[in-house]
Fold:
Amino acid sequence: MTPSSQAPAPTTESTGTSTDNTGWLTRYTDAVMNTFGTPGRVLVRGRGAHVWDADGQEYIDLLAGIAVNCLGHAHPAIIRAVTDQLAELGHVSNFFTTPAQVGLAEELVRLTFPSRPAHDSRVFLANSGTEANEAAFKIARRHGGSRRPRVLALQDAFHGRTMGALALTHKAAYREPFEPLPGGVEFIPAGDIEALRAALGPDVAALVVEPIQGEAGVRELPAGYLEAARELTEAAGALLIIDEVQTGMGRTGAWMAHHLLAPGVVPDVVTLAKGLGGGIPIGAVVATGQAATLLAPGQHGTTFGGNPVACAAALAVIETIRSHALLDRVQQLGSAWSQELAAVDGVDQVRGRGLLLGVGLEGGLP
Structure:
């Protein structure tokens, strides 16, 4: 985050306390599990691209909650949608449904698979990206059964921290403390078509990929790889699962990054989260064809997935992106940022698409 000074600092009344960063962080270390280390700041308020900490310092937020706050902080459309829905109905179990849940599922089918008949696709709503990838892993298992026990993932991939998603994640530091993980996952070099061809066979249930690998340093799969992956998985009878948790919902200047990188490719399963709720926790699995019908009643579930408040927020995000032509805006800003960053002394390369950018430095970090 970048310090700024364009707006007044939060008052005691706006934060509900006069405690400073140091005081809050002391309380944090005494109360919160040490899974993230000690945060650098305690944030108390946000508006648009700006946030304020407990000491009153203002920052420009370039993290966006790690690709989550796609409309910025406190966007009026999200506030209105969440407030209105919460005033009507806050939560129901999945013994029932709601207009918000159905409406969001219909929208996600249209956005994810625009070339497919809507009735061929289905949505499972969850609460996060790792939950979405867990469900996709189970779809792969249902597709493969005992005949197809292998699942292929890419080296340097990141798909989440829960056990199934972690099994698909390559980094040893994440995996090793929790082994043994669910088995059958094999990692192949990202972008290597011949390695994929050699690994695929009649015992492979699915290939799982990110179109742009964020954890690996914002590294885009090379041109032609997704097309080859679709052709090869189809020939082998394996599912193609694309993880758009970070790259989807307009982050790259398209609804889905694979629409931009490989417009003709139709995967079997797409996973979403992060920007989908604009800051409200929500995840989704969007599947088409046979993959859309593999999970039967009782084979998967969630207490909070499809929550009407979260669905209302997601619908507001989609409508705002659409009505304000934000996909075009993301492409324009991304191009401008890329050019400006590339001109900075010490910058070796700028990677990524739209507003998902990574900067390579000459000689690495000082």
